[in-house]
Design goal:
About 65% of the residues lie in helices and about 0% in strands. By secondary structure, the chain is mostly helical. Among the domains are: about 70 residues, no CATH class; about 90 residues. The protein is elongated and about 125 Å long.
Length: about 700
């Protein structure tokens, strides 16, 4: 007796000759049966097309998978970004339906963008959130999303139960997982903004999951649409899934242990990256740390909360140079301060290293560090401490104590040489050039910077090469070789932008602005100087913000815009005085003196140049002293009272009508040196000729 046809066989008979599209919705909970039936149908009915929806692929012959991504969320609160965001469009449409009169406007745009981003553009979550707008408004709704599972519970009547609340939706997916899949999924939740496969293996493997099994389990979770994977092979959970899995971690009693694994992994990553930030793989490791920035912050919080002072100090000292290179001074300063202040037990050398990094970053921010010299003492054979102290010494040059800076740099150079640390030697030689430039010792400056450039090239540090050639560009400026100076500055700017070394971009822009200014192209000079000032302010890079401001003043003076010049220069002078950068004070006084001379205010010009000469003499800065003498001559000419320069001159001439009486030539009588103005300039030039470079004194140089 023939057996009756099965439902599947009867369906095949009906569809065998049909040309149609058949839709199967929500196949994930019956995935095996659905796959078997669909495979039978497409093999038996050649003109049949099947569109199944599921959280995972069917894995049948001829299947093409189309991943339905969440809706696009706005990257910024701008009219363009909001208008392009499909998540914003859905939320606003549903909110207007639930709350008549609601519309997107400038006053609520930031809250709407925040809601869409925090819900990761998930359509159901956005629809559930939109129903709350009438009762809460978008501002309260955005603030309340930390408790999203209790908040998003008002689904449409008649919808399937799993679509009634956000929790029910995630519950539905969770129940379909195996125990091993659940373990991996909940442990992934400790990562912030995703992780690599190595990070997943470090945190997800345990007694119940072998490390080798993690990659296969991740692939299953990706197939089930519970984990997303980016082009850079990073695994990430959507925000609602993360919140759900954190609850599951606590319920399983695993939260603290998995956070410890997370912290250990990212500490090891930071320490692995640290030496590579100064070598051939600099670009790769800078970007790697950028990508993991949120995870590194989370690891630090774990160590601080768990009273792991030593681990916290290891992490922040490993990241110190990364923060400096990237211009993340505020972030680095906060982290170093928190780790350094932690009272838990830690090696003294680690505390000293953290204190040195913290001190240097505070100086770069234009703030006085609450760190004494006794806090940064340690083992002279400690390369990490030596680098941190070198950094602090370099920062001291721009922000305060020149003598302490020079002492620290020389100590660092000796330590690096004893350790055979080529990178450290290169860095210390470059910074030693600061003092050679200050004193007009250009031969030593050139020798040190050329050797520094060679060593940086050997170790593969493009940041270092940029610094050494930047100093050589200053030498080219002093020699009047502006074309070569511009080439070096442009090369440095390209390097800084290519590597993302945003802390160095303002310095290169200032260099380009100065070259344009020295060649008389003032309109071309202003653009890089203004950009440098803006970028430095955004980074809280106080020193280069001041330098850019001062050079804008110098440029305005040369153009004859004395009011603008004086505004910039007085701001710069005040700022230089606040950070106690004497070379900047000296050069800005000279510029203000020239402004006063151009106004015809001889008394003010004399006061500025006398103050500048005295400070330059104390610093041993012969070029600035010569510049002050030139300014004094100009001021005397303004009032028609020439001064006499003589060999062995040891102080500035007294103000007009002041000082002891002495025999003088008649005011207009000729002198052996020519005109009255040339008398003082002659003395200045004699001082400048002590340098080894021709043209070392460039009249009225910028600050």
């Amino acid at each position: 007796m023939p057996q009756p046809a099965s439902p599947a066989d009867r369906l095949v008979e009906v569809l065998r000759t049909k040309r149609m599209l058949l839709v199967f919705d929500n196949c994930e909970h019956v995935i095996e049966a659905a796959a078997e039936l669909i495979d039978l149908l497409v093999r038996s009915a050649p003109d049949l097309y099947v569109l199944p929806t599921s959280q995972e692929p069917l894995r049948v012959t001829g299947e093409r998978v189309y991943y339905v991504a969440p809706l696009g969320v706005p990257g910024a609160v701008s009219d363009t970004d909001l208008a392009r965001s499909s998540a914003v469009e859905l939320f606003v449409t549903r909110a207007a339906a639930a709350s008549p009169g609601f519309a997107l406007e400038s006053g609520n745009a930031a809250a709407v963008a925040s809601i869409c981003r925090r819900l990761d553009g998930i359509p159901l979550a956005l629809e559930l959130a939109a129903t709350q707008v009438r009762g809460m408004g978008v501002y309260e709704l955005a603030r309340a999303l930390d408790d999203r599972f209790h908040l998003l519970t008002a689904g449409r009547r008649g919808a399937p139960e799993r679509h009634q609340t956000l929790r029910a939706t995630v519950d539905w997916s969770w129940e379909l997982l195996s125990d091993a899949e659940r373990a991996v999924l909940r442990r992934l939740a400790v990562h912030v903004n995703g992780c690599t496969l190595a990070g997943a293996e470090a945190t997800c493997a345990g007694d119940d999951v072998e490390p080798a099994a993690v990659v296969e389990l991740l692939a299953r979770l990706v197939d089930r649409s519970l984990v997303t994977v980016t082009d850079g092979r990073r695994y990430r959970l959507l925000a609602p899934v993360t919140a759900y899995c954190v609850e599951q971690l606590h319920a399983a009693g695993e939260f603290d242990e998995v956070r410890r694994r997370h912290g250990r992994y990212y500490l090891a990553l930071a320490e692995e990256a640290e030496p590579h930030l100064r070598g051939h793989e600099q670009r790769h490791w800078l970007r790697r740390l950028d990508t993991e920035n949120a995870n590194l912050r989370a690891a630090l919080e774990t160590f601080l909360n768990a009273d792991k002072a030593a681990e916290a100090l290891r992490l922040v000292t490993a990241l110190g140079w990364h923060w400096v290179l990237r211009g993340r001074l505020r972030e680095g300063g906060w982290a170093l301060a928190a780790a350094h202040a932690h009272p838990g037990p830690a090696p003294q050398g680690l505390r000293a290293e953290a204190a040195a990094w913290y001190s240097g970053i505070r100086l770069m921010l234009g703030e006085r560090p609450a760190v004494g010299d006794d806090e940064i003492r340690g083992n002279n054979a400690d390369a990490g401490l030596a680098r941190a102290r070198w950094f602090r010494g370099a920062a001291l040059y721009s922000f305060g104590d020149l003598a302490a800076s020079e002492k620290e740099v020389h100590r660092a150079l000796a330590t690096f040489r004893s350790l055979g640390d080529r990178w450290g030697i290169a860095a210390a030689l470059w910074t030693r050039g600061f003092f050679s430039l200050l004193r007009g010792d250009f031969a030593t400056l050139r020798r040190d910077c050329e050797q520094s450039d060679e060593l940086f090239r050997e170790v593969g540090d493009r940041w270092g090469q940029m610094q050494a050639t930047g100093s050589l560009a200053e030498l080219a400026e002093l020699a009047g070789d502006y074309a070569q100076a511009e080439r070096w500055h442009r090369d440095g700017l390209r390097t800084a932008e290519d590597l993302g070394l945003w802390a160095d971009v303002p310095a290169k822009l200032v260099g380009l602005g100065r070259v344009a200014m020295f060649t008389g192209d003032y309109s071309r000079a202003r653009k890089p100087l203004e950009r440098a000032e803006r970028l430095a302010a955004e980074q809280s890079n106080r020193y280069w913000e001041i330098v850019a401001d001062a050079n804008l003043g110098s440029c305005a003076r040369r153009e004859g815009d004395l009011g603008t010049a004086e505004t910039h220069l007085r701001n710069a002078l005040k700022s230089y005085q606040q950070i106690r950068h004497e070379p900047g004070v000296v050069n800005t006084l000279a510029e203000l003196g020239f402004v006063a001379e151009q106004r015809g205010d001889a008394a003010e010009a004399l006061a500025c140049h006398i103050a500048g000469f005295e400070r330059a003499s104390e610093l041993g800065n012969q070029r600035s002293a010569a510049l002050a003498l030139e300014g004094l001559a100009g001021a005397q000419v303004v009032v028609g009272r020439p001064v006499r320069a003589r060999r062995g001159y040891s102080g500035p001439p007294p103000p007009c009508g002041k000082g002891p009486k002495r025999r003088r030539r008649r005011r207009n009588a000729p002198t052996s040196s020519g005109s009255p103005r040339r008398c003082v300039i002659s003395s200045a030039r004699r001082r400048s000729r002590r340098s080894s470079m021709p043209g070392a004194l460039s009249s009225r140089r910028s600050t």
